[in-house]
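ARCHIVE CARD
CATEGORY: sequence design from structure
SOURCE FIELD: tokenized fold
FIELD CONTENT:
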């Protein structure tokens, strides 16, 4: 049985002052021993996340990581640096990174491997655009994104990672994939992983992301291959985020 996991992706939102209430509310609203809960914060707030969430049932993470271990890479943050702040998770391959910052499948695979090597659990995002869905190539796109990581990191690595299916057309649009649409792609992802290793496929958690709200979370999370969610906008409102966690 896979343990449900709900992770917030704050994206580029927050301030020291506004984060405090949010972090404290999520901390006090999350029980140990239930589902896994994490908040992926902007880099400058990692120390604050550690200070407020340390010792609680809520883990913290980031939204991207460098594919390099160290060196002359101005502006980049390495996975090892993240471990100095107790960071457990790093999102890699988010569609906003892929589309605005040129993160190709190859770069995403390198970031995935760099995170794992440093002991940070990658949350690998995959998902198709609206045009790709309309062209009926969702399966091909998601498989290609997954294959790129499998080719570099190998199937064993997936046992130490989390996958998130985020249809690009559902991110921040209020337009959620129907539970059936999401389940179909989640099953496809698990089947692709099972082609490599059935045990890894059974164990790996596949989250759904894209306009998850308290009102739709339960039905989405009720699907057999949906193991939780990666939450954007709704993770900025403690009551909404906690209601989504309660649905998982
Ligand atoms: O991109 C997302 C999480 O990574 C989803 O964002 P929204 O929940 O705001 O649609």
């Amino acid at each position: 049985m896979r343990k449900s996991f709900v992770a917030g992706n704050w994206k580029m939102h927050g301030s020291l002052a506004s984060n405090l209430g949010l972090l404290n509310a999520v901390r006090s609203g999350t029980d140990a021993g239930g589902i896994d809960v994490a908040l992926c914060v902007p880099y400058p707030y990692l120390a604050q996340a550690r200070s407020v969430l340390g010792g609680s049932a809520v883990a913290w993470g980031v939204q991207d990581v460098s594919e390099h271990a160290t060196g002359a890479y101005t502006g980049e943050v390495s996975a090892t640096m993240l471990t100095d702040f107790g960071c457990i998770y790093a999102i890699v391959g988010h569609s906003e990174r892929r589309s605005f910052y040129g993160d190709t499948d190859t770069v995403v695979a390198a970031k995935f491997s760099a995170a794992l090597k440093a002991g940070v659990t990658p949350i690998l995002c995959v998902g198709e655009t609206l045009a790709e869905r309309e062209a009926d190539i969702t399966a091909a796109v998601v498989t290609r994104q997954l294959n790129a990581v499998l080719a570099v990191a190998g199937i064993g690595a997936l046992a130490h990672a989390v996958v998130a299916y985020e249809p690009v057309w559902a991110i921040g649009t209020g337009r959620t994939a129907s539970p059936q649409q999401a389940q179909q792609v989640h099953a496809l992802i698990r089947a692709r992983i099972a082609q490599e290793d059935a045990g890894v496929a059974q164990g790996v958690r596949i989250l759904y992301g894209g306009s998850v709200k308290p009102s739709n979370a339960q039905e989405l999370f009720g699907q057999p291959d949906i193991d939780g969610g990666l939450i954007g906008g709704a993770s900025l409102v403690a009551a909404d985020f906690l209601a989504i966690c309660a649905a998982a």
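CARD ANNOTATION: The first helix runs from residue 16 to 29. The mean pLDDT is 97.
SHELF: design records, drawer C
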